[in-house]
Amino acid sequence: MMRGLRLMIFIPSLLILTNLQETSSHGDHPLSRIAIHEATLALTPLAYVEASPSILGLTTGQNSEWVTVEYSTPIPSVDDWIGVFSPANFSASTCPSENPRVYPPLLCSAPIKFQYANYSSPQYKDTGKGSLKLQMINQRSDFSFALFTGGFLNPKLVAVSNKVAFSNPNAPAYPRLAQGKKWDEMTVTWTSGYGISEAEPFVEWGPKGGVPIHSPAGTLTFERSSMCGAPARTVGWHDPGYIHTSFLKELWPNAVYAYKLGHRLFNCTYIWSTEYQFKAPPYPGQDSVQRVVIFGDMGKGEVDGSSEYNDFQPGSLNTTKQLVQDLKNIDIVFHIGDICYANGYLSQWDQFTAQIEPIASSVPYMIASGNHEP
Ligand SMILES: *[C@@H]1O[C@H](CO)[C@@H](O)[C@H](O)[C@H]1NC(C)=O
Ligand SMILES: *[C@@H]1O[C@H](CO)[C@@H](O)[C@H](O)[C@H]1NC(C)=O
Ligand SMILES: *[C@@H]1O[C@H](CO)[C@@H](O)[C@H](O)[C@H]1NC(C)=O
Ligand SMILES: *[C@@H]1O[C@H](CO)[C@@H](O)[C@H](O)[C@H]1NC(C)=O
Ligand SMILES: [Fe+2]
């Protein structure tokens, strides 16, 4: 009897605790708060948005760069916001409609990130002038920056910037390692804009300072039509590019390897990533200490503070920062599910792979699917 009573008291309090945690870290995706289907045009004479530089990543191998966005409007209001769109041409009378009875939206795609216009310009609502610094990563298509009024629920497009693009939007990016089926095998997976009809993907790798060899990589992708429904199939769609995987085999125990991602175009031009390194695992049973990091439910964040509406996953950047600082002392990472909470906004996957790149490119980053990666 006593035991029964104690259990009854115990179980509800446990449930409340887990629910609290679910609502605080697993709420709606910030991008889903924007009623992109309700967007209307309110293009305003004299309003403008300017983004610079317009060509990004001019230094070889650079897939990330800060952009300064400056904007002005004669009729500012406190809930104006800046949305970043990719591809840059997001207007279209040609948005695919989800079903024949639903009118296609004016804007075909949700922004890939956003920020209030007053974020670094507190005087914006009086002067109508503001500026933002945003970190852009290579997502294989160009970008534009748009000023909206009417808040997130009734967005009205006021002005759109010039286009901004990476100098090579197809460049290989975001390598992530995984331990292969055998102890002496490592897989390298990365993203690029090169399909197999344009270039052959491979990894150039070898013992650090030794003679490198080339190993081929496979290429996969998927289409909008293979998504189950909205938003992934509608405003959340973003071309995933091509995902390549190569198998590096017969590794020597404990050896340090260097590798580069490559694409050989059919006119014999080579496109290269920067060089990365990893240490091969020990021989099984070797007397050694292996340091393993295990976590789940991390999510992603933006270093520029954007898309942080409602503090969706405030701890995510702290987690990656801590792992990067401690990388020397880590042999393998297990991210056991609920990886980036993209929730049907596909642009989030590039942003996540970019966030973990410093970790995943140098130690095996093993993932499992959670309930947010159906
Ligand atoms: C900035 O905009 C947000 C959202 O509308 C608002 O809550 C906040 O008070 C604004 N801050 C200033 C300094 O105007
Ligand atoms: C933007 O896309 C629309 C519809 O696909 C097209 O008609 C228009 O020409 C494009 N504009 C630019 C500047 O590329
Ligand atoms: C090969 O093709 C690429 C992409 O089309 C081009 O940028 C490059 O200049 C070409 N190289 C040569 C040697 O023709
Ligand atoms: C996480 O990082 C932010 C920004 O650097 C910092 O303000 C905050 O205190 C950190 N939180 C924890 C729990 O370390
Ligand atoms: Fe979760």
UniProtKB/TrEMBL annotation:
<dbReference type="InterPro" id="IPR015914">
    <property type="entry name" value="PAPs_N"/>
</dbReference>
<feature type="signal peptide">
    <location>
        <begin position="1"/>
        <end position="25"/>
    </location>
</feature>
<dbReference type="GO" id="GO:0003993">
    <property type="term" value="F:acid phosphatase activity"/>
</dbReference>
<dbReference type="Pfam" id="PF17808">
    <property type="entry name" value="fn3_PAP"/>
</dbReference>
<keyword id="KW-0862">Zinc</keyword>
<keyword id="KW-0378">Hydrolase</keyword>
<dbReference type="InterPro" id="IPR029052">
    <property type="entry name" value="Metallo-depent_PP-like"/>
</dbReference>
<dbReference type="InterPro" id="IPR008963">
    <property type="entry name" value="Purple_acid_Pase-like_N"/>
</dbReference>
<dbReference type="GO" id="GO:0005576">
    <property type="term" value="C:extracellular region"/>
</dbReference>
<dbReference type="GO" id="GO:0046872">
    <property type="term" value="F:metal ion binding"/>
</dbReference>
<feature type="domain" description="Calcineurin-like phosphoesterase">
    <location>
        <begin position="291"/>
        <end position="373"/>
    </location>
</feature>
<dbReference type="Pfam" id="PF00149">
    <property type="entry name" value="Metallophos"/>
</dbReference>
<dbReference type="InterPro" id="IPR040974">
    <property type="entry name" value="Fn3_PAP"/>
</dbReference>
<dbReference type="Pfam" id="PF16656">
    <property type="entry name" value="Pur_ac_phosph_N"/>
</dbReference>
<comment type="subunit">
    <text>Homodimer.</text>
</comment>
<keyword id="KW-0964">Secreted</keyword>
<feature type="domain" description="Purple acid phosphatase Fn3-like">
    <location>
        <begin position="49"/>
        <end position="168"/>
    </location>
</feature>
<dbReference type="InterPro" id="IPR004843">
    <property type="entry name" value="Calcineurin-like_PHP"/>
</dbReference>
<feature type="domain" description="Purple acid phosphatase N-terminal">
    <location>
        <begin position="175"/>
        <end position="279"/>
    </location>
</feature>
<comment type="similarity">
    <text>Belongs to the metallophosphoesterase superfamily. Purple acid phosphatase family.</text>
</comment>
<keyword id="KW-0732">Signal</keyword>
<protein>
    <recommendedName>
        <fullName>Purple acid phosphatase</fullName>
        <ecNumber>3.1.3.2</ecNumber>
    </recommendedName>
</protein>
